[in-house]
Amino acid sequence: MVVSVTNQAPYTPDVNELLANEEMLTLPDVAAKLGIAVTRVHDLLHARKILAWRNAAGIRQVPAAFFNDKDAVSKYVSGCITVLSDGGYSDAEIFAYLFSEDDSLPGRPIDALHGHLAREVIRRAQAAAF
User: Fold this and answer.
1) 4 in a structural domain
2) How many separate domains does the chain show?
3) Which of 35, 67, 97, 103 shows a CA-CA span of 20 to 30 A to 12?
């Protein structure tokens, strides 16, 4: 008997594993990095300019990779999150997209968003999301 795989949900990597080796910032750390109040960080999360993931202890953390070398939220990271969110991706799927290796880039989309491949990553996100 052959089992059809077309009705199965696509494999989504474990976000905890993907973020295990990432530098993660607590919300107060993000506020200090950006020079704003923690309540403004909550506004950024609500506006989906950045995303936070709860660690095993339940503490919300933001990957340091979301920020550029000037300690600001990367406009390309924020743009990619917006495109994927608008396309119906969950937070877990967005983290999986950004932090999973992609041999065609090469590397991970999150790293490419800080270089000359940023527009390509966003183009691919648009194609994947719609």
Assistant:
1) no
2) 1
3) 67
Residue 7, in any domain of the structure = no
pLDDT tens over the chain, length 130 residues: 444 344 444 556 789 999 999 999 999 999 999 999 999 999 999 999 999 999 989 999 999 999 999 999 999 999 999 999 999 999 999 999 999 999 888 899 999 999 999 999 999 999 886 6
Tell me if 97 is assigned to some domain: yes
Q: Which residue has the tokens 């590397």?
A: 107
Q: 48 is in which domain, residue-wise?
A: 15-129
Length of the chain: 130
Give exposure, 10-43, as e/b (b: 16+ Cβ within 10 Å).
eeeeebeebbeebebbbbebbbebbeeeeeebee
Cut 0.70: pTM above it: yes
Question: Does residue 6 belong to any structural domain of this protein?
Answer: no
Cα distance between residue 86 and residue 66, in whole Å? 19
